[in-house]
């Protein structure tokens, strides 16, 4: 084991450790949400995860983007087998430790190469499509500054990583041809062998420089990219799976009934209840429960996991009737705001402790009433999401807080609610006229 | 079409010691909105034609609370739900049908958690059942033969509860040509009324949702835009008027199509 192996091990442990630390912060943030039971119907959940996350069933609804995405996704998963070899080689100073697999190794390396070039091409197409194409959802008002740069950065990093991977193989291939020491004859190189005209005339030492350089760039690049995920929308590559698994299984039309409201309503409807009775003493340290959600902690953990799973593709927004007709509401922005606010709350906890109040909230500071009131609750956004994110639950929970805690609602809704209360219909018709239609011709 | 139609109420039936096969939950729109009342009557005529023993709650019916809940007023929703459950359970009702997908969704999905457990069907499902059981025969080759009909999926029937086939199966019985819009079934575009939008002005934007949807519907050159929701009906009717196409394209509920096909 040489000095380079020690350097490699130190870098590996440091960056893997940093990643674990970042993930633990995200996990803690998600668990700031209220509890919701999603431990039921495990078989159905696994099947849904297999179909939607593993099988990408909702991605291919839009065929071009869907197929390109599958290239990158399969490439990412399969090429990671190669990363395993690179890590073992890096630790023990070996070279292509799996070469003993012989013909199977050729198949592996050959397919990695084909996937790598497909990933590279798909990323180039996506870059062009995103920056030069005129796809409305990629140019919405929430897709400026960081979200825009984040998207481009991810694509550029992936292009660089694949280029390094293919350069490494290309140089290795030529070194094998030239019979260089340590470079075992192994692997098939259907793509990188095309670099022969570029690499063929170089000296062995230059080639080793390229091969080693690309090797280090590739593996350190991957480790750094891993640590980029938690601050990026690209974290979806990890959370997509649990997020689909824990998604709502009941009919989309069904909204939860708030249990704290049920308690109040039961009390009001109970003829035995003593109207003058003092409310029961709250338990020590109990925080009075709000009706609806004002901030991220009032949402449940699956809403918060949704926020970290969102990769800002905007399919939700592109099918939202309010957004299509020029209203401010964008379900994608609801998810991005939830994530940004949650990250801020997490930072506050890190810096000022658990009970710090920064005077801000998801509702009002991030998401405005105008956005929330434009929602028709049609569930198109929920249906469109390739990883089963539910922006609608958040929208409705924020509406609940506005109406029940802040008495904030459009004036027409006040009349509607008054009518329902007084005459059992959203319009001002007397309840006694309800059967009049039967007498009319 | 102008004769008086008999609509038994639950109170009368209970007084006579009888129980209906199904309770027809009319809904607020079906009770008060002039256009929707026609849908209600079409449903009643179909129930009579198939000899279904039914009743309505009449003045004992009250809003399910759906618009209040979607607007965020969970209190009002649960108050309404509890009162309705008391009435329904008081009569021992187990089976319901309704012409409104919002009532359908609320009673089917949100009442059980508050103690109200019923079997409820959307009228398109119930009518499909009547046809399958041979209780109702549709006379094909009639008024709708060869007509182009497109179906606009109500959100709370389609995406909300995965009912896509029942209304379409009724249209197919008419010897009409069912033409689909690009955004149909699970990809259907909302009419703009859901989520209590029916009762308020839209937020500032560049277009009304119902205009966007009607434009798409008119794009498939239909003689009839069919739907299964009184609110969708209102929105699409207004949309057709917006394009001055009332003479070429009618907006009708699937129940009205069936009633008219059978000359009820």
List the helices and strands and how they pair.
The complex is a heterodimer of chains A (441) and B (264).
Chain A: H1 3-30, H2 42-54, H3 63-92, H4 103-131, H5 145-178, H6 196-199, H7 204-228, H8 236-245, H9 259-269, H10 301-309, H11 315-319, H12 321-324, H13 331-352, H14 362-366, H15 369-373, H16 380-384, H17 391-405, H18 411-423
Chain B: H1 10-15, E1 22-25, H2 27-32, H3 34-49, E2 54-55, H4 66-71, H5 74-90, E3 95-98, H6 101-110, E4 119-122, H7 123-132, E5 148-151, H8 165-172, E6 177-178, H9 209-219, E7 224-227, H10 230-242, E8 250-253, H11 254-261
Parallel strand pairs in B: 1-2, 1-3, 3-4, 5-6, 5-7, 7-8
Helix pairs in contact in B: 3-11, 7-8, 9-10
InterPro entries (chain B): Cys_rich_dom, HdrC_iron-sulfur_subunit
Keywords (chain B): 4Fe-4S, Iron, Iron-sulfur, Metal-binding, Oxidoreductase
Organism (chain B): Cryomorpha ignava
Throw out a few tags for this protein:
heterodimer; A: 441 residues; mainly alpha; Fumarate Reductase Iron-sulfur Protein, Chain B, domain 2; 2 domains; 61% helix; B: 264 residues; alpha/beta; Rossmann fold; 4-stranded parallel beta sheet; 11 helices; 8 strands; 11% strand; iron (chain B); (Fe-S)-binding protein (chain B); metal ion binding (chain B); 4 iron, 4 sulfur cluster binding (chain B)
Description:
The complex is a heterodimer of chains A (441) and B (264). Chain A is built from 18 helices and no strands. By secondary structure, chain A is mostly helical. Chain A has 2 domains: 3-30 and 62-245, Fumarate Reductase Cytochrome B subunit (Up-down Bundle); 291-427, Fumarate Reductase Iron-sulfur Protein, Chain B, domain 2. Chain A is elongated and about 95 Å long. Chain B has 2 domains: 10-131, Rossmann fold, CATH 3.40.50; 137-261, Rossmann fold, CATH 3.40.50. Chain B is 42% helix and 11% strand. Chain B has helices at 10-15, 27-32, 34-49, 66-71, 74-90, 101-110, 123-132, 165-172, 209-219, 230-242, 254-261; strands spanning 22-25, 54-55, 95-98, 119-122, 148-151, 177-178, 224-227, 250-253. In chain B, the strands form 2 sheets. A 4-stranded parallel sheet of chain B has the order 2-1-3-4. In chain B, strands 6-5-7-8 form a 4-stranded parallel sheet, sandwiched between helices. Chain B starts with 9 loop residues before the first helix and ends with a helix.
């Amino acid at each position: 084991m040489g000095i380079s192996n020690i350097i490699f091990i130190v870098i590996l442990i440091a960056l893997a450790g940093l990643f674990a630390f970042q993930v633990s912060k995200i996990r803690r943030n998600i668990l700031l949400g209220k509890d919701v039971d999603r431990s039921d119907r495990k078989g159905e959940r696994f099947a849904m995860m297999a179909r939607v996350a593993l099988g990408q069933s909702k991605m291919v609804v839009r065929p071009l983007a869907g197929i390109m995405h599958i290239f990158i996704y399969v490439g990412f998963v399969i090429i990671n087998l190669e990363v395993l070899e690179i890590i073992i080689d890096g630790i023990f100073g070996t070279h292509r430790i799996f070469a003993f697999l012989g013909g199977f190794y050729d198949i592996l390396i050959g397919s990695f190469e084909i996937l790598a070039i497909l990933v590279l091409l798909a990323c180039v197409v996506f870059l062009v499509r995103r920056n030069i194409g005129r796809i409305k959802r990629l140019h919405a008002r929430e897709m400026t500054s960081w979200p825009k740069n984040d998207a481009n950065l991810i694509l550029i990093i992936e292009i660089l990583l694949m280029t390094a991977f293919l350069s490494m193989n290309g140089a290795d291939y030529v070194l094998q041809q030239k019979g260089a020491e340590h470079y075992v004859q192994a692997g098939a190189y259907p793509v990188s062998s095309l670099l022969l005209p570029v690499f063929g005339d170089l000296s062995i030492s230059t080639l080793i420089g390229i091969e080693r350089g690309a090797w280090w760039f590739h593996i350190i690049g991957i480790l750094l990219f891993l640590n980029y995920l938690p601050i990026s929308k690209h974290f979806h590559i990890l959370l997509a799976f649990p997020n689909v698994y824990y998604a709502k299984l009941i009919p989309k039309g069904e909204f939860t009934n708030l249990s704290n409201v049920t308690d109040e309503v039961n009390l009001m409807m109970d003829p035995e209840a003593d109207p003058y009775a003092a409310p029961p003493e709250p338990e020590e340290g109990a925080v009075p429960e709000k009706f609806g959600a004002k901030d991220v902690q009032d949402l449940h953990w699956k809403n918060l996991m949704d926020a970290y799973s969102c990769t800002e593709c905007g399919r939700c927004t592109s099918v939202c009737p309010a957004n299509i007709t020029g209203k401010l509401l964008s379900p994608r922005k609801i998810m991005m705001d939830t994530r940004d606010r949650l990250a801020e709350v997490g930072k506050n906890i890190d810096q000022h402790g658990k009970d710090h109040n920064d005077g801000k909230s998801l509702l009002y500071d991030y998401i405005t009433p105008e956005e929330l009131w434009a929602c028709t609750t049609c569930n198109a956004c929920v249906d469109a999401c390739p990883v089963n994110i539910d922006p609608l639950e958040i929208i409705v929970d924020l509406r609940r807080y506005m109406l029940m805690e802040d008495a904030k609602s459009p004036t027409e809704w006040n009349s509607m609610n008054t009518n329902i209360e007084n005459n059992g219909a959203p319009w001002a018709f007397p309840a006694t006229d309800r059967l009049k239609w039967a007498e009319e011709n | 079409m102008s004769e008086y139609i008999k609509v038994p109420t639950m109170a009368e039936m209970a007084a006579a010691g009888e129980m209906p096969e199904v309770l027809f939950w009319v809904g607020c729109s079906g009770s008060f909105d002039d256009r929707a009342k026609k849908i209600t009557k079409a449903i009643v005529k179909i129930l009579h034609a198939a000899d279904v023993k039914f009743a309505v709650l009449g003045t004992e019916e009250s809003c399910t609370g759906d618009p209040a809940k979607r607007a965020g007023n969970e209190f009002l929703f649960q108050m309404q739900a509890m009162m309705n459950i008391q009435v329904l359970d008081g009569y021992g009702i187990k089976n319901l049908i309704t012409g409104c997908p919002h009532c359908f969704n609320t009673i089917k999905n949100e009442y059980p958690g508050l103690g109200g457990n019923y079997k409820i069907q959307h009228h398109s499902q119930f009518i499909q059942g009547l046809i399958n059981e041979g209780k109702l025969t549709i006379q094909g080759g009639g008024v709708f033969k060869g007509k182009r009909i497109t179906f606009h999926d109500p959100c709370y029937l389609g995406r909300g509860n995965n009912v896509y086939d029942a209304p379409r199966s009724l249209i197919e019985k008419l010897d009409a040509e069912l033409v689909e819009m690009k955004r149909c079934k699970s990809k259907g575009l909302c009419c703009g009324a859901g989520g209590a939008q029916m009762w308020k002005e839209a937020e500032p934007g560049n277009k009304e949702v119902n205009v966007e949807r009607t434009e798409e519907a008119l794009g498939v050159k239909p003689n009839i835009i069919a739907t299964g929701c009184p609110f969708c009906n209102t929105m699409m009717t207004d949309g057709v008027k917006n394009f001055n196409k009332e003479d070429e394209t009618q907006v009708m509920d699937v129940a009205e199509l069936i009633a008219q096909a059978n000359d009820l």
